[in-house]
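Example 3.2
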Amino acid sequence: MTLPRLWAFLAIALPVLAALIANLPSVDLAYHLRAGAGILAGDGIPIADTWTFTAAGTPWTDQQWGAQVIFSAVYQVGGWTGLVILRAALIGLIFGCLFTIGVRRGLGLRLAAWLTLAAFLVSAVALGLRPQLIGMALLAVVLLLVTDRRAHPGRLWAIPVIVMAWSNMHGSFFLGPLALGLAWLEDVHDRQPGAHR
C-alpha cells in the first residue's frame, strides 16, 4: 500500500474502528427501537406519546419515523451487533464523503486525511446511533453531490429524492436544499465577468 493510499485508508478506517469498539450510547435508542417496532408491526406511525409517563396520551408528530423503522429493522435482523455495524457504516459514509470532498476541492491526501480525522475528533461525542446520525450521513452525501456538480451535473437530481427520504428521518433535512442553494449562488458568482481574477 502506498503512503497516499494509507492516508486515505486511515481517514475512513479510524473513525469506523472507533465506532465499532466504542460503547453504543442508548440516550433514546430504546425509544426509537420501540416506535420502529410498532410501525413494522402494522400499528402505523405513532400519533400520541404512549411511553413518557409525564406526557402519556399527548399528541405527537413522529417526524423521525423513517429512522425508527431502519433502526428497528436492523435490530430485528442483527440485534445490538447489527446496530453497532449500522453506526460504523454511517460513520464511514460521513467521513468517507468528507475526505473525498477535501480531495476533490484540491487538498492533498495527507491534509484531507488529517482534516477528516480532526473533524471526527471534534464530532465524536455527537455520533451516537440516533436519527441525527442518519441526517449527518445524508448531508455528507448531498455535500459530495454538490461538490461534484460541475463534473457530474446529472447527479444533482438525486438530491430531491435524498431530501424527501431525509425529511422522514430527521429535522435537519432543510440543510440539503440550503447546500444546493449555496452551490447555485457560487455558480452564479463564478459566471460573473472577472470572478476569477
